[in-house]
Write a structure and sequence with these properties.
The chain has 337 residues and is an all-alpha fold. It is 64% helix and 0% strand. Helix 12 packs parallel to helix 14. The longest helix is centred in the middle third of the chain and has 26 residues. It is globular, with a radius of gyration of 20 Å. The two termini are 30 Å apart.
């Protein structure tokens, strides 16, 4: 998903023409948003033709993954200077130095790892009620061979409302184990911890960033969702991405050495595109994501930093907007509302 989104980001937004490169973690976040939206759009388009089936989605996912990897390799070989923006080099630059970590920081990291491993172990015990009712589906409910728009008849309403996470993990469903779907939620939870630590560490220092991730890892309402198939944590991850983009838009190049920005980077468009995608993960995101966006707009307006940035950033809204429209269209077809 990230590599596929990378190709879309390169298509919609030429980073070389920006006054400063988008930081690695924020660029990765945007690529995740675009890649996820692209997959949802592909599923919607194929389903509208009346074709479907889990085997079809697995083949399509494999083709999409291979294509994204090939395009990334070709892009790196085509322009060696762009290699500095590639994933390997970016990760190398973001590695911590050789300085010894304090005993306190090491203890905090150990606690975070322990909390994550506990949730990984919980997945092997039993399935919880929320997963069975809200997240895990049989092949018949997901796609009985005619796509996600197939009429399911008189079934529970929870099966029919906009289900972005179920569409996202279609290739992982229908196997003898639900572990692949649950593992996806665990990875989303790890993304929450990593992004939260990056946001706080950017402004308050690395130690406080680790402490922030430590606090989140101690909250049962967040970590217990790591071992379920509900869409709470992937929605929270995308809402945190919105908050991160808004932070860059608010500081507008005044963060200092640790987090430089640029006035023409379309942070606002990036935040809006992420907002659109949250609407298909959880219906209540319409309330909470809108509240987050409304407060952000007020802050940007009051601080006189409500800037659009590079106008090509509007293109970033196309794919997430299409994904939201396609999945809500499914809900309308199946329920009439």
């Amino acid at each position: 998903l990230i590599l596929a989104g990378r190709q879309l980001l390169r298509l919609f937004l030429e980073e070389r023409q920006l006054s400063a490169p988008i930081p690695f973690l924020q660029r990765t976040s945007m690529c995740l948003v675009l890649g996820s939206a692209l997959w949802m759009v592909l599923v919607c388009l194929v389903s509208l033709t009346g074709h479907g089936g889990l085997m079809l989605w697995r083949g399509l996912a494999a083709a999409m993954a291979i294509g994204a990897v090939v395009m990334e390799v070709l892009q790196v070989r085509k322009n060696k200077r762009a290699f500095s923006l590639s994933w390997q080099d970016a990760v190398r630059k973001n590695r911590p130095g050789d300085k010894r970590r304090s005993i306190g920081s090491a203890a905090l990291l150990a606690f975070i790892i322990t909390m994550v491993l506990i949730q990984a172990g919980r997945m092997n015990i039993e399935l919880d009620y929320d997963s069975l009712h809200y997240g895990l589906r049989s092949a018949y409910v997901l796609d009985n061979g005619k796509g996600i728009y197939e009429n399911l008849g008189m079934i529970n309403l929870v099966y029919t409302y906009s289900k972005g996470l179920e569409v996202l993990v279609l290739p992982l469903s229908g196997t003898p184990t639900y572990g692949f779907v649950l593992a996806f939620s665990l990875w989303c939870t790890m993304g929450i911890l990593l992004l939260a630590a990056n946001i706080v560490g950017r402004y308050c220092g690395q130690v406080k960033g680790i402490l922030e991730a430590d606090i989140l890892a101690a909250i049962p309402g967040i970590m217990n969702m790591a071992a379920t198939a509900k869409s709470d944590n992937i929605t929270l991850l995308h809402q945190l991405i919105i908050y991160d983009f808004i932070c860059f838009a608010l500081w507008d190049g005044e963060q200092g050495k640790k987090s430089s920005s640029a006035k023409n980077i379309p942070w606002l468009s990036m935040a809006v595109s992420t907002y659109l995608l949250t609407l298909v993960y959880k219906p209540t995101a319409l309330v909470f994501s809108t509240a987050l966006g409304g407060v952000a707009l007020v802050c940007l307006f009051l601080t006189r930093r409500l800037r659009v940035g590079d106008r090509r950033g509007f293109c970033l809204l196309l794919i997430p907007g299409a994904a939201a429209a396609g999945l809500w269209y499914r809900t309308w077809l199946l329920t009439g509302v």
